[in-house]
Design brief:
This protein is an alpha+beta fold and 416 residues long. The chain is 34% helix and 26% strand. It folds into two domains: 232 residues, no CATH class; 85 residues. α5 packs antiparallel against α7.
Length: 416
């Protein structure tokens, strides 16, 4: 790999893979490692709180090197499992009739919810200060009661066809029948609190104990790190960063509080380039799903029943909602990065950005305090200069990346 073609993320990946075999094993064929597209705090307190659920239930919109949060995993999985073709008897006319009617009702429900949501937003705009929630509005005679009644009727019809489908399926494909029964209704749920509202969601938690880990990390002696790796070109060649589809080019710049971007390709290509990545704490956390999830069905080659409003690409294509199945979340706490480059190059970069009004820099998906370019306090000699970037003192742990199971079918974009 040509040295100048590397990005800052190639180096961070090499540092992580150097120490953690699970990341090094991400070959982009069976599993893939993606960095977070933007800095994200690991802000969950318990394994089943709202912040934990929101992260654990996310899937990545993209197949490249960066995790861009998109679809809700549980809902996408439910759509998929209810669309799978039975192992036998898929030509059963009653079964296909139920599937076709469910698909049509799903489209009608989606369209009606969209219209109702728009009307609810208008209601909020015209009634500033109201505390009426979406669910309350749907029963309000002066609000969205008509929409609520229509949605109730459509969902009742859908439930009737779903019940017919389930009864027929028991004779056609018992394992699939059991998997479908586990999502309709959800086999295991939990309650999460969002503001003053409590919502029931499919059981989805993050394993381990982040809160306890942070307490332990805070008790470390100064200068003691869980993670401390120095990397150079040889390490990157040993642990190349592999992605399922492509690596985005935005990795060539550091994000900054200023509108100016710090271009990094010259820095990375410097003959004296060396990077030391440290973190007071580092750990990985498994995503755990309840009994509603049947992993054995997560195969991009499983056919979708004829008559469904979905296709295989809807789930497993390039833009599919399940093309990557998140399994592990990787977290760093209080990271520090030491960058060494040629002194001459440092002076050029410093001179080009000396007037930049700078409060922070995003390096490799991590955010660091920078009180102006002059505050970097470089150390070195006439040959090399080392600059140290430290995380803000009160910064919470940061999600660095996600390891996912690859379920991409090699298909194209889906507009469904």
């Amino acid at each position: 790999m040509p040295f100048g073609n590397l990005t800052q993320f190639d180096y961070l990946y090499a540092a992580l893979a150097n120490k953690y075999p699970g990341i090094a094993a991400a070959d982009a064929k069976s599993t893939a490692f993606q960095f977070m597209d933007t800095p994200l705090s690991a802000s969950w307190i318990k394994d089943d709180d709202a912040d934990a659920f929101e992260l654990a239930d996310s899937t990545s919109l993209q197949l490249g090197g960066f995790f861009v949060r998109g679809s809700n995993f549980a809902n996408s999985y439910k759509d998929f499992i209810l669309s799978v073709q039975p192992a036998k008897g898929s030509d059963n006319s009653d079964y296909r009739n139920a599937v076709t009617n469910i698909a049509a009702l799903d489209n009608n429900i989606t369209a009606l919810v969209s219209t109702a949501r728009n009307n609810y937003q208008l209601f909020l705009q015209n009634n500033t200060g109201t505390t009426e929630t979406w669910d309350q509005w749907l029963t309000d005679p002066f609000g969205g009661a008509d929409f609520g009644a229509q949605l109730k009727e459509l969902n009742t019809q859908r439930d009737d066809f779903a019940s017919q489908q389930a009864k027929i399926l028991q004779a056609l494909d018992l394992p699939l029948s059991q998997a479908q029964s586990a999502v309709n209704p959800w086999a295991q749920t939990m309650n999460i609190t969002e503001g003053s509202a409590v919502r029931q969601v499919p059981l989805t938690t993050i394993g381990g104990n982040l809160t306890s880990d942070i307490v332990g990390w805070n008790n470390r002696a100064p200068g003691q790190y869980d993670f401390d790796v120095t990397i150079n070109q040889a390490d990157v060649e040993k642990y190349p960063w592999k992605t399922v589809y492509t690596v985005e080019t935005h990795a060539d710049c550091w994000g900054a509080s200023s509108s100016v971007k710090v271009e990094t390709s010259r820095i990375i290509a410097d003959r004296n380039y060396k990077l030391r990545v440290m973190a007071v704490g580092a750990n990985s956390y498994l995503i755990e799903r309840g009994q509603w999830y049947h992993e054995s069905f997560m195969d991009p080659n499983i056919p979708i029943v004829e008559g469904s409003c979905f296709s295989a690409d809807t789930f497993f294509g390039k833009s599919g909602s399940l093309h990557l199945i998140p399994e592990t979340i990787f977290v760093l706490y209080k990271p520090t990065i030491q960058l060494t480059i040629s002194t001459q190059l440092f002076k050029q970069v410093q001179g080009a950005n000396a007037d930049m009004s700078l409060d922070w820099l995003d390096l490799m998906g991590l955010r660091f305090d920078v009180k102006g370019w002059a505050s970097l306090q470089p150390e070195g000699d006439e040959t090399t200069t080392t600059v140290t970037f430290r995380a803000p003192v009160n910064q919470p742990a940061q999600v660095v990346g996600v390891i996912s199971k690859v379920a991409f079918n090699g298909g194209s974009d889906s507009n469904q």
